[in-house]
Amino acid sequence: MRLVLTGGGTGGHIYPALAIGREAAEREPDSSLLYIGTTKGLESRIVPNQGIPFESIDITGFRRSLSMENVKTIVRFLQGVKRSKELLRSFKPDAVVGTGGYVCGPVVYAASRLGIPTLIHEQNVVPGLTNKFLSRYADAVAVSFADSLPHFSGKRNVLHAGNPVASMVAKANRSEGFKSLGLPEGTPFVLAVGGSRGAKALNEAILEMLPGLESLADVHFVFVTGERYYEEALARLQELPAKVKGRVHALHYINNMPEVLSAASLVVSRAGASSLAEITSLGIPSILVPSPNVTNNHQQPNAESLAVAGAAVMILEKDLNGGALLSNLSAIMKDRSRREAMAVAARKLGMPKAASAIYEQIKGILK
C-alpha cells in the first residue's frame, strides 16, 4: 500500500496518523508512506524521527472572526491544494488519510479532486472545522467516540473505530513501567500529567493537595510537571512533610508513557482525545480536568463521555482546587471495589484494535 498521511499542529493529530501508518506497514511490509504537514507544526520534528519521508505545504487556519488574515488563508489554501496535487501526482498513493489540523484541508481536498480514495479520522467528540469541511469530500470517516456519529449522519461510510493510538499502548509492559520509576512492582501510585508542556492550573491544584497525601500512607504520586514548571515544582516539593516527600516523584517528562500508564492505579489528566484513548485501552480509572483553553472546548465532551460511563470523575477547571482534587482522589484510592468498577468501565470504552479497524476501512474504500 502506498499511503499518504496528513495531520498536524499537535500530537493529538500526529500520533493517530503515525499509528495508522504503522498498522499499514505491519500488515503490508512493502508499504510506502509519505507524510505531508507544515514546517511550523510539531510534525516537522516528530515525523522525520520516525523514519517516514516528510513534505511540507504552507497553510494557516481560519480565524473565527472577520479578518483580512482569512483572505490570506484562502490564498494559502489554494496554493496548498496546488502543491498537494504536485506531491500526490509524484508519489501516486493508493489512499490519503487525514487526522485533523488545518494542514489536512488542502491535502485531502486535493486528493478528492484527483480521484484518490480518502479517509479522515476525528479524535474528539465534537469534530473540528477542518474535518467538518472535509467530510463532504472524503470517501470514509472514522471516529474515536460513538457520540461523534451524529455529526457525520450525512455520510454513508462512517465507522466508530476508536483512536488508533490505543493500539500502540495495548501491549505496554507494566513491569517496565514500575522499573523505570524505581518502584517495586505492584506499588499503588497515582500518575498526574497535564500534557507534554504541563498545565499550570492542574499543577497548582496538585501542589496544594500533596500535603494531604499523609492520609494515604501506602500510595505514591508520580507528578509530571512539564518542563517549564519543573524547577518551580521541585522547590515547592521541598516544603512537604517528610512522610509525604518520599512518596512524591516529580518528573518534567516521561519518555515511556505507555509503560508507566499501564502500571498506574489512577490517572489525573487533561482530557485530550489521545490521552483518553490510551487510558481506556489500558482500563485505567481517571480524574479528568478538561482544558478550557482549546478550540470549541472540545475536551469537556471528551471527559463527559468517560464520566457518564462511570470510567472517570470530571472536575471542571473553574471548580478545581487542592481540596476538590484530594477529596476525589482519596475516595477512589481508598475504595478498591470502586477503582475496579471504573477500570472495567474504562476498558469497555477502550478500542485497542482501532488501528486495525481503520486499516480495514481503508482497504474497503480501495475496493
UniProtKB/TrEMBL annotation:
GO cellular component: plasma membrane
One Pfam family from the record: Glyco_tran_28_C
Entry binding sites for UDP-N-acetyl-alpha-D-glucosamine: 10-12, 124, 196, 254, 299
Topology with respect to the bilayer: Peripheral membrane protein
Keyword match Amino-acid biosynthesis: no
A biological process from GO: cell wall organization
GO terms, molecular function: undecaprenyldiphospho-muramoylpentapeptide beta-N-acetylglucosaminyltransferase activity
Domain Glycosyltransferase family 28 N-terminal: 4-142
Compartments where found: Cell membrane
Domain Glycosyl transferase family 28 C-terminal: 190-356
Keywords: Cell cycle, Cell division, Cell membrane, Cell shape, Cell wall biogenesis/degradation, Glycosyltransferase, Membrane, Peptidoglycan synthesis, Transferase
E.C. designation(s): 2.4.1.227
Chief location category: membrane
Pathway: Cell wall biogenesis; peptidoglycan biosynthesis
Catalytic reaction annotation: di-trans,octa-cis-undecaprenyl diphospho-N-acetyl-alpha-D-muramoyl-L-alanyl-D-glutamyl-meso-2,6-diaminopimeloyl-D-alanyl-D-alanine + UDP-N-acetyl-alpha-D-glucosamine = di-trans,octa-cis-undecaprenyl diphospho-[N-acetyl-alpha-D-glucosaminyl-(1->4)]-N-acetyl-alpha-D-muramoyl-L-alanyl-D-glutamyl-meso-2,6-diaminopimeloyl-D-alanyl-D-alanine + UDP + H(+)
InterPro entries: GlcNAc_MurG, Glyco_trans_28_C, GlycoTrans_28_N
Similarity field: Belongs to the glycosyltransferase 28 family. MurG subfamily.
Biological role: Cell wall formation. Catalyzes the transfer of a GlcNAc subunit on undecaprenyl-pyrophosphoryl-MurNAc-pentapeptide (lipid intermediate I) to form undecaprenyl-pyrophosphoryl-MurNAc-(pentapeptide)GlcNAc (lipid intermediate II).
Protein name: UDP-N-acetylglucosamine--N-acetylmuramyl-(pentapeptide) pyrophosphoryl-undecaprenol N-acetylglucosamine transferase
Lineage: Bacteria, Bacillati, Bacillota, Bacilli, Bacillales
